[in-house]
Amino acid sequence: MTPIYVTYLNGLDIEALAITDDEILQAIETSLAAQGRGETVIEPRMHLKPDPAVNGHFNVLRGAIGAPINAAGVKVVGDYVDNYKRGLPSEMAILNLFDPATGMPKAILDATAITDMRTGAVTAIGAKYLARKGSKVLGHIGARGTAYWNVRLLDKLFDFDEIRVHSRRPESRDSFAERLTQDLGKPVRAMADWESTVRGADIVVEASRLLQPEPLLKTGWIKPGALVVPYGTMSAVELSLTDIMAKMVVDDWGQCRGGQFGSLRAHVEAGKLSEATLHAELGQVVAGLKPGRQSDDETILFWHRGLSLSDIALGHAMLEKAKRLEIGQRLRFA
What is the pTM for the complete model shown? Predict the structure, then answer.
């Protein structure tokens, strides 16, 4: 048998690729358009909680993308909220890529940074199509790993005049604001509470880390015409939030309509978000099959739970760049 090799990209390799903001956004927008055109296969994520006494679980994401990417993938990502106490990221992940025609393994990638980058890119691409073009104020709740890429890639597209961030722990939000201020070259304000962060913002992103559902983001704070992007594992929004929305968009209805977790789980269960009230999946908007924002006065909600397709697309882009730059290791599989 001809020897089979897989490419292994560890965290240092991923960092050495120095993938650009534009490369990240292009990979994710391409995958969303493919999803909208029906050129992908996506299975709802699965959860594994090894120990009920531990505040953490694994997510298992599976999917495949057709030409020109031609890759199937499975990502396993741990989501352990208290890891900061051990000096560890809350989310650590492995992405496996396969040839969908033969099942042959192609690559193993450290997907911790991929998870953060692709989540931020989906937030940003969602805003590209659903936020007002003149959006200048961002209110961001949460300082988790994905939060940095939310703010960075949103600012790449909108060049905000004002960026406000908040998280539960003062040391976390202060260091988050300092890092963003340095990297973006503009002041980022650490806010003391949810209301001052959210009220009057053109784009509101809620990426909190709650232990249990709690309606901390109030519907009355939302500016008419704003885009609201909630994606916390536990719901932090009021049940009335969907009542003010002109359009509701999700990344994948199959994932959003069921499961244990999600920021709008109660809204689905109450029938406020359903196939009847859903405007579109984001991929349909990106592919031009359904309209995005049509007027400045539309208040729009975008809920994304995280797509295996985004992991696969960004992992593929990194793999191709690694080949060009001769980064990574070849491991003998068979």
Answer: 0.93
